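Ops channel
N.P.: pipeline sanity check, posting one input/output pair.
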C-alpha cells in the first residue's frame, strides 16, 4: 500500500489504476474503490472484503450524465431528489440497462454523488468509481489510515492521506426500481 496525497494520485493516468484499488475519504466514511469499468479490480474488492458477489457495489459519480450510461430513465421524483440532495449522502438504486456493467450487478445499480472534494476530484480525473466502506463484510467501517493499512495493506494499492471531515454516518439509500421510491436505509439525509 502506498500512501499518497490527492495531488499525487491525480498525477497518475487511468491506465495506472488498472486492476488496482484506491482508498480515500468520502463525505461519510473512508471508501475502497476501483474504476467502475475495471472488472478485475472490482472483483478484488469482493475478495478483500469477503463480500457476497450478489451484493452490488455502489458507484460514485460526479455528474448525472455518468449515470445515463447505465440507466435508461430517471423519473421526475428521483430527478428532484438528486437535484436537492446531490452532492450528498444519498444513494439511489436504479434499474440497470441490460448488458452494461454486468460485473457490478445483475439488474440494478446504485449511484451516489459524494459531497467530498477529494472523491469528486478522483471521479473527475479517472471516471465513476465502484466503492464501498473499508471493512470486512458485516463488520464496522474503518476510518483510521493506520488501521486500514494494518488490515488491508496487501489489498489496497493507494491510500489518499489528505485530511477530510467524515460524518461517520452511512448514506440514505432509496430504491427507485419500483413504481414508487422506497427508503431502504435512513442515514444522514432524511428524505
Amino acid at each position: 500500500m502506498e500512501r499518497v496525497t490527492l495531488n499525487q494520485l491525480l498525477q497518475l493516468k487511468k491506465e495506472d489504476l488498472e486492476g488496482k484499488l484506491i482508498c480515500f475519504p468520502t463525505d461519510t466514511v473512508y471508501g475502497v474503490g476501483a474504476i467502475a469499468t475495471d472488472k478485475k479490480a472490482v472483483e478484488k474488492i469482493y475478495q478483500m472484503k469477503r463480500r457476497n458477489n450478489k451484493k452490488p457495489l455502489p458507484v460514485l459519480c460526479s455528474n448525472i450524465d455518468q449515470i445515463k450510461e447505465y440507466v435508461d430513465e430517471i423519473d421526475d421524483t428521483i430527478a428532484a431528489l438528486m437535484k436537492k440532495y446531490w452532492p450528498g449522502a444519498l444513494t439511489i438504486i436504479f434499474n440497470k440497462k441490460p448488458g452494461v456493467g454486468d460485473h457490478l450487478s445483475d439488474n440494478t445499480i446504485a449511484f451516489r454523488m459524494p459531497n467530498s472534494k477529494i472523491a469528486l476530484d478522483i471521479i473527475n480525473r479517472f471516471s465513476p468509481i465502484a466503492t464501498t466502506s473499508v471493512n470486512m463484510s458485516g463488520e464496522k467501517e474503518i476510518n483510521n489510515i493506520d488501521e486500514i493499512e494494518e488490515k488491508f495493506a496487501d489489498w489496497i494499492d493507494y491510500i489518499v492521506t489528505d485530511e477530510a471531515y467524515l460524518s461517520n454516518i452511512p448514506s440514505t439509500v432509496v430504491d427507485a426500481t419500483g413504481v414508487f421510491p422506497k427508503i431502504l436505509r435512513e442515514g444522514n439525509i432524511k428524505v
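N.P.: looks fine end to end. The longest helix spans residues 39-49.
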